[in-house]
Amino acid sequence: MYIARCCIFTVLFAWLRAVLSSPLLLKTPPGLSASRSLDVVGFDEDKFEVVLQSRLPDVPLDEDAVFINTVEAMREIALGNYAGSMPLWRFTTATYPEVVIVLDTPLHINIPRTYAIWGLPNAFADMSRSHAFAVSSYNLFYDEEIVGTISFRYRRPIVDKHANSTAVVSKRATDVPEYLDQTTDDLERRSNAPVPAEILQAPNPTNEPRLRVEFTYGAEPMHKEDMMLSIIYSLLLAAPPPSDAEVPTEHPFSTPNFSFHCVFVAWPIHRTAPPFLMWFWLIDAIAEAAGYIVDQNEYRMLEMDILVDSVAVAKAVLKPLQW
Question: Is the pLDDT of residue 69 over 60?
Answer without folding.
Answer: yes
